[in-house]
Specification:
Elements lengths: L4 H4 L6 E4 L6 E5 L2 H10 L6 E4 L10
Antiparallel strand pairs: 1-2, 1-3
Organism: Candidatus Roizmanbacteria bacterium RIFCSPLOWO2_01_FULL_37_12
Protein name: DUF5678 domain-containing protein
Length: about 60
């Protein structure tokens, strides 16, 4: 399991793209479309994406 806390604490808003294996940060954008375009320009056609939020707002369960 990858610890994303170092990546997530840098970004409070917007969308984040990670490599398909969730090991590497690829891009950040204000919209989902923007982050997908940026990821594709970097050669990552199918990134994992998530919406950034302050780390204390995450709930997993």
């Amino acid at each position: 399991m990858t610890d994303l806390s170092k990546i997530l604490k840098k970004y409070k808003i917007g969308w984040l793209a990670l490599s398909p294996d969730n090991e590497k940060f690829v891009a950040q954008g204000k919209t989902l479309k923007e982050v997908l375009v940026k990821a594709r320009k970097k050669g990552v056609d199918q990134p994992s994406v998530l919406k950034a939020s302050p780390i204390d707002n995450y709930f997993i369960g």
